[in-house]
Predict the structure.
Amino acid sequence: MTEVPWWRSGVVYQIYPRSFADDGGGDGAALAGGVGVGTLEGVRRRLDHLVWLGVDALWLSPFYRSPMADFGYDVSDHCDVDPVFGTLDDFDRLLAEAHDKGLRVLIDWVANHTSDHHPWFVDSRSSRDSPRRRWYHWRNPAPDGGPPNNWRAAFARDQPAWTLDPTTGQYYLHLFLPEQPDVDWSQRPAVEAMHDVLRFWLDRGVDGFRADAIHAIGKDPDLADDPPARAGTPRSSTNDHPSTHDHLRELRRLVDSYPGQRVMVGEVYLLDTAKVAPYYGDRDELHLAFNFPPLYTPWDAAAWRARLEEVERHLTAVGAWPTWVLGNHDNPRPRTRYGSPARARAAAFLLLGQQGTPFLYAGDELGLEDAVVPPGQAVDPGGRDGCRAPLPWDASPGHGWQTRPWLPWPPGAAARNVEVQRREPASILHLYRRLLATRRASPALSLGTSSVLDAPDGVLAWARATPDDRRVVAVNFTDGPRELDVGPGWTVEVSSDGDGEGRPWTGRLAADQALVLHP
Ligand code: NOJ
């Protein structure tokens, strides 16, 4: 029998380094200005939180050298650590200690674009004859002097995905900010330079990559206009060119040539599960691909049922192992989106009860809400500051940070912090821990099949099974009690409000309650 790779059964914890933890030890008041930034050393010092929680791996959002126009997703040196986050030695120490504690480490790989300060782009823009001119997409202006096509950039809706460079008189393409020029993946030397980046980190021992905007790397060589129906939509959420798949097969071979179950998780930001499926190829492209439709699904049983059925139809039916994401650094947190603490607790079951690899965003295990960021303090060009608020580690005024952090605290940090919730067995933090332990101990939950069960309106229930193990997961999306018939002989293993755990299942779900049942 072939060994099941860790990235199928495991749970990945996403860390946004800027907001996770600084070197610690102070009272947070050292600098009134609010400039404190998390560090790699801060992550290392807090690894025991991940071990205690019971996740298998961590994914670090970018910590590379960057002018920070997009807070690190504008990379100016892929092979070095930005001084605000520490040094390469700090990274090596973090990696070694994570491995010692049994945690895998994934890092972000920003492949579609670089910073406009990256030496590759500085060289490229220096003259039309520069050796690296073709590493980026340069085009002459349209006859009216405007951009070469009608593609729109992300973030600022009405902005073209092109910026004119006055020195050389041509436009360059950027699906995101003007500070993030797109690399031309049809140019072999650029591709090889990107492969070298992967080797640099694989040789250092990382367990894999989360590949940023990977669906966008292959471009239509004609750069044809988007059709009128799509003309206002950012190109970054629709770009789906066949050449990307050739690149992914090559990348898969590169990653698989290293021992130890390295993994490539792709951010495929195409908001349609049927369009995500091809990015797994014939099991020869991405190992895992993000599937974002559930993240954008409201608190509604029928809508969620449709998401589960799409995953079954488009992914598991063809042997592609799904992923589940309910929070990340780009979107309001589940507690904020779903609107109540009870729903934030039930959402943990939607994330950890599914067939597929869950990605848990740091702070969602504390039930954090987005911070309210006053306009004068807003810094992100994409309006995503709220979910990037710093993690409160304790109830002290500095919440475990030595310097007041770059963004305001999330609401209620005096109670919603790691230390206080660890002392409180009824907290959402303990609920996450129980669910993670239950998932790990149950082959049905971690690796079994999934099938949606008949349930009354407002309830979603699904069965998980291996030949020797079974579970039922049920979520009541309504604000009243609901009866659910799943047959006799079930016991409540985990319940979102803690009620009834260890006792026979009564057949009744409380408002916004979620359960794991065992036979
Ligand atoms: C997706 C990342 O998650 C987001 O934070 C970033 O702004 C864009 N890609 C561009 O790199």
Notes: The mean pLDDT is 96. The pocket of 1-deoxynojirimycin is lined by residues 70, 73, 110, 176, 212-213, 267, 329-330 (CB under 6 Å). The first strand starts at residue 12 and ends at 15.
